[in-house]
Amino acid sequence: MNPGTTRRTVLATAAALGAAVALPVSLAAGTAHAAAGDAAALRGRWHTLLTGGPGLDMTDARIAAAVARIGRAATTAAKGLDPAATDGLFPDLTSTTLSNHVTTSFKRLATIATAWAVPGTPQYGDTALRDLLLGGIDWMLTNRYGPGHTRFDNDWDWEIGSALALNDATVLLYDTLGAERLTRITTAVFHYTPDPNLWRADRQIATGANRVWISTVVAVNAVLRDDGDALARVRDALSDVEGSGANSVLAFNDASAAAQGTGEGFYSDGSFLQHYKHPYTGGYGKELLNNLSRLLNLLAGTAWTVTDPDLDNVRVWVDEGFDPLLARGDVLASVCGREIARPSKQGHASAQTVIEAVLRLIPGFPGETAERFTALVKQWIAEDTYRDFLAVTDLASLVAARQITGSAVPARGPLVAHKQHPRMDKAAHHRPSFALGISAYSTRIYNYESIQNENLHGWHLSDGMVLLHTDDLGHYSEDYWPTVDPTRLPGTTVISGRPADAAGQRTTSTADWAGGTALPGTTLGVYGMELRAYGSSLRALKSWFCLDDVIACVGSGITAEAGTAETVVENRKLRDPAAELLVNGAAAPTGAGWSAQLDQVRWLHVAGTGGYVFPEPATLKGVREDRTATWREINLKYGTDTAVTRPYLTLWQDHGSAPADAGYFWLQAPAASAERTRRWSVAPPVRLVARSTAVHAVRRSADGLLAANFWAAASAQELKADGPASVLVRRDGKTVTVSLSDPTQLRTSVSVELAVRGLTLVSADPGVSTVRVADGIRINADTAGRHGATLNLTLKRS
To answer: Model pTM?
Structure first.
């Protein structure tokens, strides 16, 4: 193979790799260098990624089980396969208007081909099955896919989905194809996906995950065609060395978003956006990481090795992007886009993809990063007791995982952190016993995605949705998304009633205020949003003060010209249908069909979930119900018509019809016992300091910590801000730590005064300064271009 001529100097030796990619996890030491420029060796690498490679240890029960699993999957996939058919290769995939029928047909062929290529399966080396597979490929090329066919429906299926699956099947069957059939295949793929820098009939430049998907298609096709120039274009496409850098996959998108015009890709704060303004770490983001890790394995140690220094950013993707968004094997739904409406993506399936990708990355980041990633993967695998990663992953990842789990590096341990992603209006709060995600949106971010007839009930996914992950690891699996009441998602403030399916599928808010501040190295964070609801006149100011094991929930300015406004305290799919609900210590009825108005509520406790304390006694409404639905109700493309029923407990505060300046205040205590909740109702650990349309503020009783969200210039006890800001002040002896941000991401500076005498500056982030004032100190922060990031300073009292 000719390495190709490009503007980038490429070194083919391992010494030139530095901190970039080393040997693939599945290749023996030295193999990569002998393989440089050798198409057969590169096919072997891809074959190993698909099959686990030669010499599998069938005495290992995990390996044997995985091989058996591959055989069963192939048996299922082969049902109805008939190359002599006229309407479709498979009887249930006959459509000539739904492009996913084409992709699914190729995926089934690849599944069957995998079993044919893996020793130990019932299908291994079967000549009759081989001929059936070859006939199936011929049928698809003759009747559906290639230069002689007009594409229909979704471009993704033609340029990415079908091409990926056909490439895999071709690698697996390579030695049996023959020259003529191989040429037909590679020509068909090249017809739809000729170059990583071009996409679709309009020649649009692909970005984000689509760019890596397309690069993967082109790379494997290039290996099959023995085309080194195409591999060079793939390598360079990841960095966009041919252009301005605006489409680089590896570079952070912070500076390039404006020039690029889409904002798609990873940001330095760990955010990931796709489809312009949709948070999508758990959807397109995981696929980008997955396919990039496969590409790096393919090209490692060759003349096409990726040597871009921006490859080092992948460390940040994992540490700041994926890790905070995983909760014991699940991915926070707020960053999964329309994938939450796909039955195949429940049950922690998305996290599995992330783990597999990081496993492939480990050999390419030697030293401290490799150890950290190893500890991280060990933790992710061990803590997910709902879905056993080793029992579901592919063979190559299983081989790598067995090496990792058997290594001397200890697991990282549970994540304990508060992490905010200002570039995608999301926050995550992790404690040893729970994880909590908060979902907002603004002028910068869309509320939810519903395209291709998917995610039809996602109306309120960003209206302040709060998803609590406890030790009920299957809570958001087992049919949660079709059965939950989508008009009462937990944490949201809404106008009651059901919008039309998919309404508001691509809508930003007219409000800029969404974000907060986080104290580094702690689980202390302040988050908030100005809600201007889509499709109604509802307005609200919402705050979450995440103070270790307590989340103080504050709302004000809840106003609507019409309709009944509600704020949802909880909406829980019950692991135990008879889970006890205590209201001020008294047990409520446990049977389905119970509903009641609950007056003068001071505290609630839901068994298996946690407690809720109302320092201001509140009137709530509650209902227990068995909810029945089908996946097709939320996904016409991939959903089934099979009805499923799940038990739910929902609790909400009714603000009345056409409310004017209504509000709320409660403390959420995830995983707290009933007794602890009762004690906190007597002596609340957090008290309300301010709740107006100018400022929300709370103070922690134990240490006097003060936290505030300023919607406008205002004061909250000793703290005063000159305009919109989020501020947290913590005292520890004579040390005072202040964290602040501009959640609007529009202000060039934020000024905060702290009325505490005798303070002197110890340290401050760049752009932060102080000046003495009559009754304390003024903090001036340069927030221009900070995109909502937290700035910190430390003061000391004399």
So the answer is: 0.94
* Structural contact between residues 623 and 594, judged by C-beta atoms closer than 8 angstroms: yes
Q: What are phi and psi for residue 213, nearest 5 degrees? A: -55, -50
What is the rounded distance in angstroms from the CA atom of residue 71 to the CA atom of residue 113?
10
Q: Which residue has the tokens 């939450």?
A: 340
Sheet holding 759-764, edge to edge: 686-691, 695-700, 706-710, 725-732, 735-741, 791-797, 759-764
Round to the nearest angstrom and report the end-to-end CA distance of the chain.
72
CA distance 147 to 132: 23
Altogether, the residues listed in the chain come to a count of 798
Location of structure tokens 């949709």? 278
Q: Tell me which H or E stretch contains 649.
A: strand 644-657
Distance CA 668, CA 681 (A): 11
Tell me how far apart the alpha carbons of residues 558 and 567 are, in angstroms, rounded to a whole number: 10
Indicate if the alpha-carbon torsion angle 639, 641, 642, 645 is positive or negative: positive
Per the rule left: phi > 0, alpha: psi between -120 and 50, beta: everything else, 261 is: left
Count of beta carbons in the 10 Å neighbourhood of residue 180: 8
For each successive 10 residues of the chain (798 residues), what is the average pLDDT? 42 29 35 55 97 94 97 98 97 97 98 98 98 98 97 96 98 98 98 82 74 96 96 91 64 66 86 96 98 96 93 97 98 98 96 98 94 98 97 97 94 98 98 98 97 96 98 97 98 96 87 97 97 97 98 98 98 97 98 96 98 98 98 96 98 98 98 98 98 98 98 98 98 96 98 96 97 96 97 96
418 in Cβ contact with 434 (< 8 Å): no
Which helix (DSSP H) or strand (DSSP E) does residue 763 occupy?
Answer: strand 759-764
DSSP state for residue 284 in the 8-state scheme: I
Residues in CB range of 492: below 8 A, 6 or more apart: 460, 463, 464, 465, 567, 568
Report how far residue 412's alpha carbon sits from residue 298's, in angstroms, rounded to the nearest whole number.
29
Task: Give residue 795's identity as a one-letter amino acid code.
Answer: L
Task: Enter the tokens of residue 778.
Answer: 């003024």
* Alpha carbon 262 to its chain's center: 19
Angle CA 35–303–245, to nearest 5: 140
Distance CA 526, CA 689 (A): 14
Distance of CA 305 to the CA centre of its chain: 28
SS3 content of the chain, % helix, strand, coil (to 5): 30, 25, 40
Question: Catalytic site residues?
Answer: 284
- DSSP letter for 588, please: P
Centroid of chain to Cα 287: 10
For 489-578, where are the E strands, in sequence order?
A: 493-495, 514-519, 524-532, 539-547, 550-559, 564-573
Q: Is the dihedral of CA 338, 341, 343, 346 positive or negative?
A: positive
What's the chain's Rg over C-alpha atoms?
Answer: 28
Q: What count of other Cβ atoms lies within 10 Å of the Cβ of residue 221? A: 24
Gap between the Cα atoms of 2 and 17, Å rounded: 20
* Cβ–Cβ < 8 Å for 289, 270: no
